[in-house]
Specification:
By secondary structure, this protein is α+β, with helices and mostly antiparallel strands. The chain folds into 2 domains: about 5-105, no CATH class; about 120-255, 3-Layer(aba) Sandwich (Aminopeptidase). The chain is built from 8 helices and 11 strands. Strands 4-11-5-10-9-8-7-6 form an 8-stranded mixed sheet, with helices on both faces. It has a 3-stranded antiparallel sheet with strand order 1-2-3. A hairpin with a 5-residue loop joins strand 8 and strand 9 (about 205-210). Helix 4 packs across helix 5. The two termini are about 35 Å apart.
């Protein structure tokens, strides 16, 4: 069931999604879109409808954006809020992009979510040795998407860590140092088994990148980690905390700790195959 989202909440989330990439990307205005272009060795971004856009998006608007993305050799990707720009998904589909409609959830009611026995959850400083492991866990978790247990665990994490270029974590460490990303990990005797972060801007934040080693799933790690991220956000004065779940099944993990579906996020990209 989709709960109501106020106009104020929708506007604040729309503004946040316009602001947060600007700390690590350059921007271009292309018709009704803002194109975020990640800096070298940084995260790869996307185009999204301009903040507070009050016009319909057309097929030609999407074509112009995609043409520019091709010129820059950046991902042909578009993100947005279906509730804010309902014309976005049809316009993307009209040019052959694959469109995902993903649950957008807002934190409504705090729920206690203790860490499993033998697991410690903590926030990382920029120079913490666990930063690299947190990023490897995120990579492995998202490569094996979903909530099912899979045969990828500490052995694969350690193998990837042995060959990891430490410079690849410089952006994350810099963002932690500037307090624009807040990174948490869950650890047991085998090391980092789950990770995730939130990215506060004023009194709004988004929970992003929550991932668990596939062998360690279905133990409550993601829920406990996310609950601690929310608590950290609230201590910082955040009054609106939201996230986008990869599926309805994944959304249930967050609903158990007080999130409620309040809208739909759009993610459009080149169709595979």
């Amino acid at each position: 069931m989709v709960a109501s989202m106020s106009e104020d909440e929708l506007s604040r989330i729309d503004q946040y999604l316009d602001q947060v990439p600007r700390s690590a990307a350059l921007t271009e205005e292309i018709g009704p879109f803002t194109l975020f272009v990640g800096q070298p060795h940084g995260w790869r971004y996307y185009g999204r409808p301009r903040f507070a856009l009050d016009e319909e998006i057309t097929r030609r608007d999407v074509e112009r954006l995609v043409e520019r993305q091709r010129e820059l050799t950046v991902p042909e990707a578009i993100e947005g809020l279906a509730d804010q720009t309902p014309s976005l998904a049809p316009a993307c589909q009209a040019v052959g992009l694959a469109v995902e409609e993903l649950p957008l959830l807002i934190h409504r009611s705090p729920q206690h979510a203790p860490a499993p026995d033998g697991v410690r959850i903590r926030r990382l400083d920029p120079d913490d040795v666990a930063v690299s492991a947190s990023q490897v866990v995120a990579t492995l978790g998202f490569e094996s998407a979903g909530t099912d247990i899979a045969p990828v665990g500490p052995t694969e994490r350690n193998e990837m860590l042995r060959t990891r270029d430490q410079d690849s974590d410089a952006l994350v460490r810099d963002r932690i140092a500037r307090d624009v990303s807040v990174l948490f990990v869950a650890e047991d005797e085998l090391g980092v088994v789950a990770s995730g972060m939130h990215q506060p801007v004023d009194d709004v934040t988004e929970i992003v990148g929550v991932a668990t080693l596939p062998t360690m799933r279905r133990r409550g790690l993601a829920g406990a980690l996310t609950a601690d991220l929310v608590l950290d956000a609230q201590r910082r004065g955040v009054s609106l905390c939201f996230l986008t779940a990869g599926s309805t099944e994944i959304a249930r993990v967050y609903e158990r700790i007080g999130f409620r579906r309040a809208g739909t996020a759009i993610a459009a990209s080149l169709a595979s195959g």
